[in-house]
Amino acid sequence: MKITNTRIPLTILSLASVCGLTLAIHTGQARSGTAAATASSKPPTGAPSSQWVWQNPLPQGNNLRGASFIDANTGTVVGEYGTIVRTTDGGSSWTIQASGTTQTLWAVSFTDVNSGTAVGEGGTILRTTDGGDHWASQPSGTTLQFRGVSFTDSNNGTAVGESGTILRTTDSGNSWLPQSSGTSNTLFGVSFTNANTGTAVGGTFGESTILRTTDGGNTWVPQTNPGTVFLFDVSFTDANIGTAVGDGGTVLKTTDGGDNWSPQTSGTTKTLYGVSFTDSNNGTICGFEFGGTGIILRTTDGGNNWVEQTNYSLPQGANAFYAVSFTDANTGTIVGDSGILLQTTDGGTQWNSSDGGTQWNSQPTVTFNFLYGVSFTDANTGTAVGYENPDGMILRTTDGGNSWVRQNSGIGDPFAGLNFFGVHFVNSNIGTLVGQEGIILRTTDGGNNWTQQTTDTTDWLYAVHFSDENHGAAVGFLEGKILSTTDGGENWVTHASQATGLLGVYFTDANTGTVVGNDGVILRTTDGGQSWTPQTSGTINQLRAVWFADTNTGTVVGDQGTILRTTDGGQSWVTQTSGVSEILLGVSFTDASNGTAVGQLGTLVRTIDGGQTWTRQESGTNQDLYNVSFTETNTGTAVGGFGAILRTTAQGPTPTPTPTATVSPTPTGTPTATPTPTATPRATPRPRPTPRPRPTPPH
What confidence score (pLDDT) does residue 364 get? Predict the structure, then answer.
């Protein structure tokens, strides 16, 4: 089969994300992280995710937004889903700390090894006095989001954020008092050099905002500046010398406390999002561009010259940096998408990460690209598939995910890369994966070798399932094709289904199978796929995945938290209450009673009674989860966006049933409600399955 340079078409879900991008940029509701070290093996008590642990990236894969290092060894980084990660050995190891919240944390400020404050969405303010062993919530008096925070000592600090919000504390946050900023523009960054003297930056369309105080915020004075774009961060080294950065490669410099701001030549038009100076000469900026890569700029002469640094290595898919923290001219850390952690001890001559430079991890980060399918045959042996350029992503584990090894697909598309969407193994050696343009690959040796099989379709194949080594089926989305084989894929026969798009397939034996897809379609065969009979689903929601325990007992999941159940082979389908409104993308049961479904924004629901009750579990992430595979009642693996691999091996306490949720925001703040069905293929099950999922800027 000829591989052409065809990219996945825009999905309705991702199109909504793109359309909502401009609004998200300026409201801060968008979400957009490499792990450079070994994660603490013991999750902290009370952490948002007590049962699911990260296997990729490490130490975790949530997007990171802020960083604060107080010396070369001790630092804290924060991010989405209430993520707080701490190192005390310069990044050789990292410990995930319990924040007590799932709100995005945008910024953090420590004044010594023990005292620190983190701020974020929903007016969240968290405080620690023991280096993060315990974080306590402090009342802010607002639900507006905070984007920046700066403390000069353990008592005096200022937080800034949405709609020009400024709060001030002089007693370690025991009380926070609002201050008048004089602007309704969002403030993204703040820098104080002493208890009284500080600068905040922000902006709106066509206007850069810079505010200055010399009396602890009793008065904030707007400063004239030549900027016309959002400013996202500011760094002062003393009361007079400071640098602000923002959209379009903007760099502004002052040497007189902001009475005058002068533009500097950055040499880029990328968005500059973080800046850190340790003295008047040495500074580093980090940022990103839409659909492109991150950027790191360095100066050793106060910004007269900015030089891009490129001496670092990250897996594909890592493409946005959001915060930087240096403790001296040489030692610094940059954080970003999906848990990216880059560190340098030589001023950025070399940036080290988990897959390049110094190898901090026993298990380097494998990928930051999307993973769409996963199949385990026992607790230890499993395969995950997804996107990679040029040859698609195939990952294999034989130790329960403690280590994942890349396998070679044997084919490639160097122009756009390849997307593999579905995978199924019938035993530890024999498995089949499917992907774009009718790709089907087969292995009989656990993936050491993959052989491409011949099909007569270029439909995009999203799922595959075998009932034994020989009998299997795959389904296509763009044309609604069903492919079947009775000889392990030596020959594939294509059947037209009359469906507008199919997304899930499951066979319980050589003859009996079910496929699901667009517009609530459910089709059933009892003759090995020669004929397909429509069944009444009772919904027009897109159905994404299907699983059967036996010929009669099955579960289907889909859009708007849809879960359907049958106990009579699909003659009747009963709607079950999932308690969530997010799109459910994958489902896996170990028997008729015990099952788990995963989906958008890290959604994870579980049942132990065949779906009579579904209860939400904390996945520990808001990355989209596309598929899940359980081999034992309490042992399972989920995969998702930006290389996310999560693992559970313990039942833990029974979660509390979750009431029906309202429609949740998508990654860019756009409702996830499914559009009115049409006769043509609608949304694919994978938001943004492009070669490089765009970093969604949080400004």
Answer: 59
3-state secondary structure of 642: helix
Report which DSSP code applies to 203: E
Does residue 567 sit in helix, strand or coil?
coil
DSSP 126-194: EEESSTTSS-EE---S--SPEEEEEESSSS-EEEEEGGG-EEEESSTTSS-EEE--S--SEEEEEEESS
Residue found under tokens 């997307």: 419
Residue with tokens 């952690």: 341
Peptide bond into 667 cis (omega under 30): no
Which CA distances in Å does 554 have to 78, 519, 533? 41, 19, 16
Residue 274, both tokens: 């973080």
Q: Are residues 523 and 497 in contact, defined by beta-carbon separation less than 8 angstroms?
A: yes
DSSP conformation class of 583:
P
Quick one: pLDDT band at residue 652, thresholds 50, 70, 90?
Answer: very low
Residue with tokens 């793109």, as numbered in its chain: 18
**SS3 (DSSP) at 293:** coil
**Structure pTM?**
0.86
| Tokens, residue 263 | 């533009």
pLDDT digit string (tens) for 136-154?
999 999 999 999 999 999 9
Shortest CA distance to 110 belongs to which of 274, 325, 333, 323? 325
Q: Using DSSP, state whether 22 is helix, strand or coil.
A: helix
Q: Which residues contact 62 (CB under 8 A, 6 or more apart)?
A: 33, 79, 80, 81, 83, 338, 339, 620, 621, 622, 623
Nearest Cα neighbor of 696 from 293, 320, 272, 229 is 320
How crowded is residue 19: how many other Cβ atoms within 10 Å of its Cβ? 11
Q: What are phi and psi of 165, to 5 degrees?
A: -65, 135
Cα–Cα dist 442/409, whole Å: 10
> How far is 77 from 82, CA to CA, in rounded Å?
11
User: Shortest CA distance to 671 belongs to which of 12, 5, 6?
Assistant: 12
Give the residue from 287, 28, 128 showing the smallest Cα distance to 118.
Answer: 128
**What does the block give as tokens for 279?**
């003295």
Q: What DSSP designation does 352 have?
A: B
Maximum pairwise Cα distance, the chain: 82
Token pair belonging to 620 = 């520990």
363 within 8 A of 315, measured Cβ to Cβ: no
DSSP code for 502? E
pLDDT digits (tens, 9 = 90+) for 199-248: 999 999 999 999 999 999 999 999 999 999 999 999 999 999 999 999 99
With CA atoms as reference, report the closest residue to 432 among 380, 387, 510, 484: 484
Rg (CA), the chain: 26
